[in-house]
Structure formats: C-alpha cells, structure tokens
Amino acid sequence: MFYASRLSLITLHPLRLPLDGHGCARLRSCIGLLWDIAYALTEGRETISPRPRQQAIIFQQMGDDVIGFLTYNENWGSGRRTAIPSRRSPVPSHYFQVRKPMQTEHRIVYREAGKFGGWPANYGMWAWGDEIVVGFTQCTHLSLAGFHARTRDLPAYPMQARSLDGGQSWATIPTPAPSPGGRGFSADEHMKHELRVKQAIEEGLEPLPRPCPGHIDFTHPDFAMMVARTGLGGGTIPWFYLSTDRAHTWQGPFSLPLFGQTGIEARTDAIINGAQDCMLFVTAADEKGEEGKGVLLARTTDGGQTFQLVSWVAVSETDELIMPSSVRLDERTIVTAIRCSVREGEFEETPTWIDLYASTDNGATFHHRARPVPNAGSGGNPPALIQLHDGRLCLTYGYRAAPFGIQARLSEDGGQSWGNVIHLRDDGACSDLGYPRTIQRADGVLVTTYYFNDHQESERYIAATLWKP
C-alpha cells in the first residue's frame, strides 16, 4: 500500500533529478594546524568541481524515470536555477503500474577469507534437474590491487561448486580437469608470466591440448562441455573438456583451431544441435594482438573431431566485442548477446553496453537486433542469455556502476524489445562483481550465479540468486 501511494504522487508531482555534486560545508571552529587556512579562504563553500561526464552518465541512467533535471548556480547567493527537460515527457507510463517486488533469495556458493572467487562466466554452468555445477576462478585476495582485488604473484586455479538441491546449498572442490603442468586455466591474465598455463604449454608440460578423437554424443543425459583458454589477446590458445558424468570428471584437454586468427579467447558458449553436431561461439583477438576483434561461430558435425568456421556474428575495428552468450530460438533462428565497449580509452571510463545479434538462416549470417543494455557500468560485464520455459528470453548481467549489483531484463519477442530492468540485488560495494551464469529449474525458478563483494577491500565471493520472473 505504501508503494502504491508513493507511485500515485507521481501523477501530481513528477520527479525531477537534482544534479549537485560540489557543495562543501565551511568549518568555522578552530582546529589548530589540522585546518588548511589557504583552502578555507579561497575555496569556501562551493568548490569548483566540473564533472560533465559523470553528470551525463547519471542523467543517461535515470533519464527514463524522471521528467528532467535541475541544476543551478548560486551566484553569490542569488540562486539562479534552470530546469532541463528529459528525453521522455510526460512521466513514463510504467510508473503508473504497481509492480510487485521481485522475490529473490541470495545464497553463498563459495566464500573463503583471504581468497578471491571470481568470474563464473569464464567457465560455465550446467544442470541436470536440481543438480547444478558452476565453475569459477580462485585467486588470493589483495586489497588495493586495482580494479580486481587479487594478487598476480600467486597461482589462480579453476574451481567448481555443486548443488544437489537446486541452488540452496553448495560444496566446492578444485575442478577435476587435467591441465598442462597442473596450472590454472582461463586465468592467465590474473597471474604473472611464470605461473601461467601458456608458459607450461611452451615448456611442453603434459597434458598438452590434443585433437579430440571425435564421435562425442553431445546429447548424453549427463553431458557437460567446458571451453577453456590460456589468457587474452594475440597468442591465446583455446581448448575444451568433456564430461559424461555430470562434471565429476573431465576428459581433455582437446585442442581447438585458431580459425586463422591471432588468438581465440574461448569461453563456454555452445548450442547442441544433435548427437554429433555442436556450435561454439568464441571471441577472436585482432591482427594487432589486442582483445576483442569480434565473435565468430564454429561448428562440428563429427562429434568434436573437427571444427569449421561458419560465420562472424559481429566484428568491429573501433569497438571491443567479447564474451558471447547464445540461444537457439527455432531451427533457423539464433540470438547472441555480446559484451561491448569502446576500444580506445581507459578500461574503467570508456562506454560499455550489451548488444544482441540474430541469425535467421541457422548461423550463416548475423545482423544487429537490439541493445538490451545501453550502459553496463565501469569496464562492462558479460551477458548470460537463456530461453525460459515459456519462450521468453532472459538476460542477466552485472551492473558495474552505482548502485552496484546484478540485473536482468526479459524479452517476449525474441529480443526485439526488452522489459524494465529487474534489480536482483543492488547492494554491491564496488564494480568488481558480476560475470553471471543462469539456469532455470524445472519448477521455473532461475538460479543466477556470479561473483560479488560486500566492501571494496574485502574478499570477493561466489553467490547465487534464486528468483522467479
């Protein structure tokens, strides 16, 4: 009732966003040498703090929910104020709808003092009924280490957590997948050179990635596939693992081709078409060896023995396109969500978004369909795209701007348009979070796993949100 009453006020008093980020209070009491007299006398109350980029971001994020913003210049107390209209006027219609709060339940998947648990999107998530397995990286936590609070001076290892009750409780073990020299994989970018799995491959340490013998049954009831890599950019080596016992053991590593590229930054994104037929969507490095030239589609029709390049989903010379997440809608239609950012500029400052591409000829060609996430926050975040039992598309992603958290959007028309943002949680302390994976249980409940934080300097951990759209 309180929520409905607050919403009803908007019809009479539409919201306007104030943008005032530079007010300072003057301290008039004497505190001795701790007070900077020069600063107090020159700056006074209103320090000069122009932040056009930050204010533009705030307005872009909130512009659809207000009728404009209010800014002003006190001009020595005269109080000149200006109202700027919003892109949308009058008040958006969705504010007049009383929306039921999303029922969510948060669970800890893995958390350990002194450790950094991160990036489930780099490995995968698999489900067999209420049995769920998710992979992630374990690093050693280090405060004040930069964007990621982990040290590069100690090894990073792949881990996997298993739930037997639909995501309510979890048990974690090192991922039982053999790797060259026993090194951690899909994480070279988080370790110094001598600890990396690529270094082990160059030294010839077994087991090395080798061609798959083929004749895999991708439709086996206990099947799982995990795609792996060394690091990022030029020289990145891809391979994959297979399991027919629900990820209790992994066979491999089985090599993947480079498809004529300088490197293949492979993560698990597969569409199974039949017993011997599987499509893989992977990121390619560009000719200069930089990350994110674009996303390509490769396919095997002989049970994994060979993979052929089918088409490019998207490629760009100016933007970085990485980390696809793909769904087959029917025998001809495939949609792929891609993490995007402007290539030039600082990692934490360049614009980021998520685009959706579609193929209506079974992957032969792709075209841009929509931009479901116009702003993914600082550094961006990969999408986790699935099709729900009722046919809708569900996209989950980490939101790396305030309020930091995990968000989702739904589409009822194959990704042509998207509903309002669903806030699964907004209680993150900083932008070092996200990289989700999502599955849907038989009862319709979604299980979204991701890495998260409670404080900017605390350890990162793996969490799960159980929710039903």
Low-confidence stretches: 1-13, 25-35, 73-101
Helix content: under 10%
Q: Quickly count the helices.
A: 4
The total domain count is 2
Summed over residues and divided by their number, the pLDDT gives a mean of 86
Q: Would you tell me the structural class of the helices and strands?
A: mainly beta
CATH class of the largest domain: Mainly Beta
Taken from the alpha-carbon principal axes, the silhouette is globular
Present the secondary structure layout:
Elements (H helix, E strand, L loop, with lengths): L1 H8 L7 E2 L18 H7 L8 H11 L5 E6 L6 E6 L18 E7 L4 E4 L6 E4 L2 E10 L16 E7 L7 E4 L22 H6 L21 E6 L8 E6 L7 E5 L8 E2 L4 E3 L5 E7 L9 E7 L7 E8 L3 E10 L5 E9 L9 E8 L7 E7 L10 E4 L5 E7 L5 E7 L10 E4 L8 E7 L5 E7 L8 E7 L2
Parallel strand pairs: 1-2
Antiparallel strand pairs: 2-3, 4-28, 5-7, 6-7, 7-8, 8-9, 10-11, 11-12, 13-15, 14-15, 15-16, 16-17, 18-19, 19-20, 20-21, 22-23, 23-24, 24-25, 26-27, 27-28
